[in-house]
Amino acid sequence: MFPIFYRPIPALCSLFIMLPCSTGFSQTGSPLQLVPWKDDLFKVPAVIESRHEGDYLILDYQSARDINGRDSVPEKKANPDRVSTEINSQQTDTKVKTKSGDIRHFAVGRTQGASIIVIYFHGKGGNRAQGVDDGTFGGNFNRLKNLVVQSGGLYLSPDITNFNGKSANQISGLLLHYLASSPNAPVILACGSAGGRICYQLARKDELVPHLDGIVFLGSFPDGVFTDSAAWRARVPVYIGHGSRDYVSYVEKMEELYRQIREKSPGYPVKMERFESGTHGTPIRMIDWRKTINWQLSVR
After folding, report:
1. Helix then strand then coil, % of the chain, to nearest 5
2. Which residue, of 102, 137, 184, 194, has the greatest Cβ tally within 10 A?
3. Could you report the per-residue pLDDT of 12-46, keeping only the tens digit for each?
C-alpha cells in the first residue's frame, strides 16, 4: 500500500484538451490506479497454464491473431480503433540538462504535480521515438500514453545513447528533475530488451529507490545481481514479460530470475507472463499496461 502522503490531486479538466477528466484515484481515497482506456481491445490472451497462484502465467499468443488481427499494416500500423492521437497535443520533444550531460526525451502529460511518472527505456538500435510511436506494437505505446495522461500523470521516453553508467546517471538526473516538481509521484520503470540494463542500474541508486513503485522487464535479460540491489531490498514490484521463442534473450534466463526473486525473498511481489510462441518484441505488443501497473501500485 502507498504511504499516507499519496492523496487525490485536484481535477485536471482544464489541462487536458478533448480528454476525459480524471484524477486517477478512486473516490474512496484508495491508492492510485490508472483509469480504463480501451481495455477490451488490449486484453492479454487466454491462459494456457497458471502457477504460483497466478503469479506465473503461460499465455496463448498467436501471431495471426495478435499481429494481423491488431494491425492494418502488420507490425507497422495498428488498427484505427486501437489508437487515439489526440493525446499528442500533450506531447513534447525536449531535453533536460543533468550533471552527466543533456538527455533528449519525449514528455507526455503533466510536468508538474503529476500523479505518477512512467518511463520507458528502448533497447539497442532504438531511440526516444519508439516509446511514443502510435502505430507500432499494435498501438500499445499509444495506449500507455493515454492511460498515464488521463490518470493525471507524466510519461517519458528518453534516448539511451549507450547502456553503461553514464546513461543511467543521465536517466537518474532526468527522473530527479521531474520528481522535484512531482515529489509524491510513484515511478514505474519499463525496460525493453537491452533497456533492462538501465533498469538494473537505477535499481541500485539509493536516491531513486524510495520513489520506485514498479519495474517492468519486456524481452529483457537478467543481470545476476538484482537480488542484491536496493530495489530488491525495498521489495519494489517486478513484472517480467517474455516470448517463449525469443532468440535474442532466451526465456529460460528470465524464468530463472523469476525463481531467484521468489526463492530469495518469499512473498516478494513478482509476476511473469510467458507468451507462448512469441518472439523478442511480443511482450511490448502484448503487455496489458493498465493491469500490470495497477497491480504494482496496489502492492507497493
Report:
1. 35, 20, 45
2. 137
3. 333 333 333 333 433 234 589 999 999 999 999 99
